[in-house]
Amino acid sequence: TEGIVIAIDGPSGSGKSSTSKGVARARGLRYLDTGAMYRALTWWMLDNGVDVHDSAAVAAAVGRPVIEMGTDPAAPTVSVDGRDVAVEIRTKEVTGSVSAVSAVPRARELLVSAQREIIDAARRECAGIVVEGRDITTVVAPDAPVKLFITASAEARAQRRSKEIRTGDVAGTQAALELRDKLDSSRAHSPLTLTSDTAELDTTGLDLDEVVALVVELVDEAA
Ligand code: C5P
């Protein structure tokens, strides 16, 4: 029998990473953070002096870095050319440039095919995988038996993200987050969208354990 695929999309700060990891741990599944792959590619572009707003330059360079993902939900990893970049990909510079890189079709083609390989391996080799991002329910794994769109109010998302990055500037964080969501939702190539075959889960006012329990229930129903 083949492993199960759980596809989760949603805007920044919606809690989808923590939820996805929690669900994967609870059910012995692998975990893939596709946002980390776009961030790793963006980090490499910045580190190599590629102008991220020059889409032709980005497209020409996308095949150069080797991006590898570790899918253990207890200790996920991301590396570029053998270097662990877990810390580097969370900087302001990368966060501010990632939407430009992820809008380049050639970058998406390459990462989507890498994501599908990781998903196929998990389906063959273990109980399955939880995959989170912006286009998982629509493009990467549209046939997944469990498809979720996790949201929360902009205020709640800004609060969570501010805690995560340890800043008191909640208003500034909210503005940056809303700008990134606007870019990710309005781009021409696979924008973040909620489609009618995907369940929406608004987590405003819920804590992580409650959200994980809800999603685990959906996974058990589908398994
Ligand atoms: O999930 P995270 O906030 O780390 O994602 C970083 C960025 O990567 C997003 O803002 C978006 O531009 C891009 N992304 C994407 N498609 C995905 C996952 C992330 O375009 N499946």
From TrEMBL:
The Cytidylate kinase domain, residue ranges: 6-220
Alphabetized UniProt keyword annotations: ATP-binding, Cytoplasm, Kinase, Nucleotide-binding, Transferase
Domain of life: Bacteria
CDD domains: CMPK (cd02020)
Region Disordered, residue ranges: 1-21
Reactions the enzyme catalyzes: CMP + ATP = CDP + ADP; dCMP + ATP = dCDP + ADP
Amino acids binding ATP: 10-18
One Gene Ontology MF term: kinase activity
Pfam family, one: Cytidylate_kin
EC number: 2.7.4.25
Matches recorded under InterPro entries: Cytidylate_kin, Cytidylate_kinase_dom, P-loop_NTPase
Residue spans of biased composition, Low complexity class: 10-21
Annotated localization: Cytoplasm
Family: Belongs to the cytidylate kinase family. Type 1 subfamily.
Protein name per the record: Cytidylate kinase
Species of origin: Nocardiopsis changdeensis
